[in-house]
TrEMBL record:
Subunit structure: Interacts with microtubules.
Name by which UniProt lists this protein: Regulator of microtubule dynamics protein 1
Keywords: Cytoplasm, Cytoskeleton, Repeat, TPR repeat
GO molecular function terms noted in the UniProt entry: microtubule binding
Gene Ontology cellular component list: mitochondrion; mitotic spindle pole; spindle microtubule
Localization terms from the record: Cytoplasm, Cytoskeleton
One Pfam family it belongs to: RMD1-3
Length: 186
């Protein structure tokens, strides 16, 4: 029994020494380890040799790419969106008021949004009220021109709420009967 006990203690000691040695070697080996990058697909390892170049000798029909020329109204909308993205509200309002008599619903709802944002900036309540009612008129005109524009319906609902704050609760209850407008804006 004592001989087996001595054997197990010697074995345990030698294992712990070996384990410490291996652990120290592993730490040393990680210091010198360099990450080797292999290609994800082995086929791509030979990419220069597998590359196929397509040559054209001018045969076949060449399609001419015609760029669509933008209309004046589309350019106005693009410029207005750039100004709005830059968060220059007063500049946007001044830019779009030039086109308040146009017959484009996209420009008119953007003008209503700009007038509404201007109203939010103004401190004077009379000017704020005037801006909201002006915006409400623009969005009503946009809805008359195109009843299928979701943005016009959205701003109509928003401005209906803003104007109802000034006109009282009776106007608010009348607004609730406009369920068709809210369904259209979704």
């Amino acid at each position: 029994m004592q001989s087996s006990l001595r054997f197990f203690t010697k074995f345990r000691q030698s294992c712990s020494v070996a384990f410490r040695f291996l652990r120290s070697q592993r730490k040393e080996s990680y210091k010198h380890f360099k990450k080797i990058q292999y290609p994800v697909f082995p086929v791509l390892a030979f990419q220069p040799f597998a590359t196929v170049h397509a040559l054209s000798f001018g045969f076949g029909k060449k399609e001419e790419v015609k760029e669509k020329e933008l209309t004046k109204e589309e350019l106005i909308i693009i410029e207005a969106d750039k100004i709005y993205t830059a968060n220059e509200i007063l500049k946007l309002y001044d830019f779009l008021t030039q086109y308040k008599d146009c017959k484009n619903d996209e420009i008119l709802w953007r003008l209503a949004r700009a007038a509404s944002d201007k109203g939010k900036l103004v401190q004077n309540t009379n000017e704020k009220k005037a801006c909201f009612f002006e915006a409400f008129e623009y969005v009503k005109k946009a809805l008359e021109l195109n009843d299928n524009n979701f943005a016009s319906h959205k701003w109509y609902a928003i401005l209906l709420d803003y104007t109802a704050e000034y006109e009282g609760t009776k106007k608010n209850f009348k607004c609730l009967s406009c369920e068709g407008t809210f369904k259209e804006s979704q």
